[in-house]
Amino acid sequence: MSDPLNERDTAAAALGMVAEAAGPYLGSLPDLPVHDHDAGGLLDLLDGELSEDGAGTLDSVAQLLRVGVGAATHSSGPRFFHFIVGGSTPAAQAGDWVTSLLDQATGLWLTSPLASRAETVVLRWLKDLFGLPRSYGGVLTPSATFANLTGLACARQWWGERHGADVAADGLAGLPRMPVLSGGYIHPSSRKALQVLGCGRDAVRVLSRDDAGRVDVAAMDRALGEIAGPAVIVGNAGEVNTGDFDPLDELATLAERHGAWLHVDGAFGLFAATTPRLSHLVAGVERAHSVAADGHKWLNVPYESGFAFVRDPALPGRTFGAWGAPYLPSADDPNINYNFLGPESSRRARALPIWATLRAYGRSGYREMAERHHDLALRLGGIVEQAPDLELLAPVRLCVVCFRYRPPGVPEEELNELNRRIGVELLADGRVFAGTTTYRGMTALRPAIVNWRTTETDIDLLASVVGEIAARVGT
Ligand SMILES: *Cc1c(COP(=O)(O)O)cnc(C)c1O
Question: Quick one: angle between helices 113-130 and 351-386, nearest 10?
């Protein structure tokens, strides 16, 4: 068994097994509980010692399918509302399989003109979809965390150059600390990016005007005036507790006034730009110096998928490229080597599922989906407002609904514990999946609706299961 060369004829059959499993799995996905507790024992089948001889292709793929289909979290189904987790459109999922089938060494044009060209095309399509100028540079990343890292690394390079330093070559030694300002909506992944970049996650100076974290633009204006030299502003387009937005246009004006860099984290919120109904939420994003977003959330492309855009298209190359290895293309290679434009080197052809889904559904497909999810969020918000024992904690702006259980007569100091227990029970129940957060000191549910499969039935089920569990836990 052991040498894969002896099994070379099994590849197509193995893929056929996956394709055969796909139909029944996808067919059952809309009705499966998000979680099945009895699947626990299946995970043990993953375990054991590394075998000497190997079990062979077909046996191993069969085993992986058995365990995987049974034990997976069915988060790509329509009722996974925790965090902000999208599914996979049919075209994106098939595009992802094509990516695996072709197994392109993506990063250098030389190793895959196909992947390189596809990346260029989808980046242009995405800029068009989001109303970003075509002149922006960009790169596909594994996630929004990496897209934030990419944008903030470019910011750091720009900031270093303003101090006469080349941070890519020489690092940060001898430079002052890079000033970073944001409102309270800043996502932990932007801090993580700063911590990886050597700027420190606590470099962020948070200027909020309330306990929800809304940015204090006037205070930021003053703070920027007091900083001698360039600074970086992080604008947040889509905050994870309520889906609220920083006023990007005002932040862009501040950046202009003070010669600062504006980085926008639009992991899911950038998709507001896909519909005229919601695009006012991201007005001004086209004035940002760098923009980060996710493909595996609202684009409904399989993990791992994100993208970063940078206004100055020459900056990513200075930030991530020019290693001078003799076997790599030189910096003046006329072909695009995405290797040099982002934090990764070798990577999968993650442009292909993006290409497939954008080609399949077009602008109107994504507009309709964003509008439907907005409608569904408003529907849930309406149900919450009508219910005497539920309390909506923030206006529904996009696709997130932040609320808590608040039955009459229960004192405020008991509500957090009560809602925490509802969250735990809800996750254990598994019919719908939504957990808790802390919003302005209150324990709250904050379901997010970004999956293409989700319909009114799923939203109504979410509301009724929350009601049922709350009634049980509350007594
Ligand atoms: C999800 C999210 C991120 C991080 O995205 P990953 O894809 O998990 O890396 C960053 N910012 C915001 C606002 C998010 O919602």
Answer: 30
